[in-house]
Amino acid sequence: MRLGLIGLGRIGAFHADTLSHLDEVDSLVVTDAVPAVTASVAERFGAEPAESPAALIGSGVDGIVIAAATDAHTALIKAGVDAGIPVFCEKPLSGVVDEAVAIAEYVHASGVPVQIGYPRRFDPAYLAAREALAGGELGWVHTVRSTTLDPAPAPRGYIAVSGGIFRDCSVHDFDSVRWVTGREVVEVYATGSARGDDFFAELGDVATAQALLTFDDGATAVVSNTRYNPRGYDVRLELHGTTDSVVAGWTESTPLRNLEPDTSWPSDKPWTFFMDRLTNAFRAELAAFTEVVAGQRPSPCTVDDALAVTWIAEAATLSLHEHRPVRIDEVQK
Predict the structure, then answer these.
(1) Does the pTM of the predicted model rise above 0.90?
(2) Using CA atoms, how far apart are residues 267 and 250, in angstroms rounded to an integer?
(3) What's the CATH number for 121-277+309-331?
């Protein structure tokens, strides 16, 4: 198949590498807002350069992968859908809620498959946790814990346009707990601290956050996030049920220093970058997209999934600022 890749920054270049090595991809067309970047990536991975997204879509591609800036997502999704070709787009649908709702409705009306990039769905341990719960191994789950701890904050310029920690970082946890449990979140209570660089408080954001999620069956999840975890990039998920408990993300590279006597675990170098922690998951989600393009499977992460996460993030943000629990149906439009 012939695929197009729009946006060639850090994650886009990684996707170019992945796509260029997939047996299912016969040819790859790439484009970026910076022509020199387009030329460089095309040469590096043996891809065909295109001068614009429109030229790329018009070049006969069977599907497109969008790794462009967030504010371009909705327009590019629409362009792909209008061309009748399957679309993979990095999260989020949009940084503007009304736009996210509108593009989701547009995709529904088109019938064209769109996959949103939440790579933890393709992490083997997260998948195993989901299967263990669905298979009855855990009994019924009462407690879920999900963690994303970044080694260091992004620059002020990025934080200023990120939408805040819940919309930018926590959404990965929100999607994970919803997908793994198969339950819908009905209420959120969130809190946080701006302790750290001054710009977090200046921007009305927090550097560390906790969100307590209540599911529709009464179970609860605690989502923990921070921009300051210098030991490494810590992504974990725990499920505690009435018959068993499981964890994803506990390996020899988990960035924790164990103080138990006579215990050497974990012994390897800690993860320090999200691409290191989730390399295989990022590659697997694009392999899955080739199956979507080939008509072999439906989208494994739909616009509805992305919209559900958007509502959780909106509820968490409102809860943070108003210091109260917020029901999901309060923020839904």
Answers:
(1) yes
(2) 12
(3) 3.30.360.10
